[in-house]
User: Fold this.
Amino acid sequence: MRTVIWVAVAIVLVLAALTYGRALLAPTEPAAVRELTVHGFEYDFDPKELTVHRGETVRLLVRNTGTIEHDLTIPDWDAATPLLSPGEEAILEFQPTRSGTFRFLCTVPGHNELGMNGTIRVE
Ligand SMILES: [Cu+2]
Assistant:
């Protein structure tokens, strides 16, 4: 009877060690985060072309370096910063799931037409 108990205890300990060990050894995949900065001003963005990868998290810092209000909108993704005052900034975070080329622009009337737009290429 005593042997059975010791065997049971040993099995529990081995299982606990395996479980705990596996948790320790589990690969902690760091989430790929791409941080990019875009400046918006009259009437352009810098840079105008961004390249990101499908599946990665993109953290886009948008800074208004101009002298009037601007925003940055990505129509295909329903993503947009609020209207930013001069000197203000905002972060747009997204995870592109489709490859392709997507336009972004400033939606203040007239700004897109004056050249305030660019593209995000998802590879
Ligand atoms: Cu603008």
